[in-house]
Amino acid sequence: MTTVEQAEKLILAQLKDYGDETLPFEQALGKVLAEPILADRDLPPFNRVTMDGIAVSYSALQNGVNTFKIKAIQAAGDEPTDINEPTECIEIMTGAVLPASVDTIIRYEDVEIRAGLASVHVQDIKKGQNIHPRGIDKKQGDVLAAAGETVTPAIISVAASTGKTHLLVKKLPRVVIISSGDELIDVNQTPSPYQIRKSNSYTVKAVLKQHGLAADVLHIPDDPDITKTQIKQCLQNYDVLLLSGGISMGKFDYIPQALEDLQVEKIFHKVAQRPGKPFWFGRYQDGVLVFAFPGNPVATFMCLHRYFLTWLRATLGLPQQLPVYAVLDKDFEFLPPLQYYLQVKLKSNQQAQLIATPVEGNGSGDFANLADTEAFLELPLERNEFRKGEVFRVWKFV
What we know:
Molybdenum Cofactor Biosythetic Enzyme, Chain A; Molybdopterin biosynthesis moea protein, domain 2; Molybdopterin biosynthesis moeA protein, domain 3; elongated
């Protein structure tokens, strides 16, 4: 049986560049930059005033001048006004351009203004204070956001400030989420005692939406011919198929046979893990990938986070996320020789440790238990007993 480590390695061997697209910058949130954003001018683009107050020539202070005649008032966005005499000053506001004839800003709190005169009543004044010099942050042509970075609200701000109205970003794969089974009905229907509402597809779609990926949804009934026909159409129109259910050993699990008939290459089937042991992964021509997860909600949820999102980050060229570890705060036993993904709640203690508290449910069909947890704690298959205080890798999903 394929181990978790082997499964991850085999999946990450199937990376593909899906090309680039240009989007309006305000629509690019969550996308991955395909080119850097460069400074179109120095940042800041001028010597910028950082405090409301008066602008003076420091040499006048050195010569004993402490009362200045106010020549003008300059707001942010105004054309700068110069002084003609060292005994003059400019009332100036935060964000304004520093006039060339002055070099120091004294806060309003440190002066007294009366009858058109500003008197300085502090001694500790430094030349150049309260000024953000031109180009000190970045020079024209410097990289403000590198290719390969995820577009965040901060990068949206960078794009706006540089006039970058459109961004070249990496295309996401075209994804379809496929559920199967005659026992599943629409969410707006009332189930009979032997039916359940569809939930996995909506769960998967919501997770993908959090990562900027809009996926289509399809449901296939328990019919071998329809199963084969619809999967064939999906293989021709999408880059990735995410299937939930229909891949185990049941008499009505037609998906594995359909995939075989359609000559989808099986890379592995069954992983030494719980939940999610029946996980099937394969590749079709032109690199179309098939992630076929077990139908149990917790299994689908875990496999999606552990494998598909890991692959998605890698195929977009994002840096590998550093592992996160947590301390188990309760003894736990798991007997089958499988890598176990224990649902846990997380908290931090005063020693800055991440603490994982098990929230044991009733198996991989207990989807309600997911609402009470925040992560999966990855417990190695080589062991059966896990003790309070031991540290294990954690996969957050909240």
